[in-house]
Design brief:
This protein has three helices and nine strands, in the order βββαββββαββα. It is elongated and about 60 Å long.
Length: about 170
């Protein structure tokens, strides 16, 4: 199942010493995307998220606004990669009757390039505007962190149903 979300996205880079499979430590830089209202909030959010996964010191090496109009998430188990897709929306100029193409970028979660194409097509099937997929490329993004309000977090922790107890 695909779901999409429009928001203000920031690409961040985190530098830290990672313990590799062979037991050696190596200085790495990993890229993550966060939903935030400002650069300051993006930095706070990525520090908050990374603290859960990285034991030890790390640095936020870079933060920049992402160019994605939307991010298409996938619930598929094998969807462990992120692809940047460039779509061209095709319109006809009424005065000149010439075709005009506008580039729009999306981030798509998928397991393979063909499944990324499929996910884009699924997400765009309700669109009334003609489009063409101009390019799709795998990114180095490790994960995407959406904003969740306190009420969303509380709802996530509630059980789906509660068992009744006898008195």
């Amino acid at each position: 199942m695909m779901r999409s979300r429009t928001a203000e996205w920031f690409e961040t880079k985190i530098k830290y010493e990672k313990t590799m499979e062979d037991g050696l430590t190596k200085k790495v830089t990993e890229q993550y995307v966060v939903d935030a209202l400002s650069f300051t909030e993006a930095e706070r959010r990525i520090i908050e998220e990374m603290t859960n996964y990285i034991s030890g010191a790390f640095d936020v090496a870079d933060i920049k606004k992402a160019t994605y109009k939307e991010i298409f998430f996938s619930d598929a188990e094998m969807a462990d990669r992120w692809y940047k897709a460039k779509l061209q929306f095709i319109t006809i100029d009424e005065k000149t009757e010439k075709e005009k193409r506008s580039n729009v970028y999306y981030l798509v979660q998928a397991g393979t390039l063909p499944s990324a194409v499929k996910n884009i097509e699924e997400a765009m099937k309700g669109s009334i505007v003609d489009y063409a997929i101009a390019s799709i490329a795998e990114t180095q993004i490790m994960d995407v962190y959406e904003y969740k309000s306190a009420t969303q977090n509380d709802e996530a922790e509630k059980p789906e149903y509660e068992q009744e107890t006898e008195v």
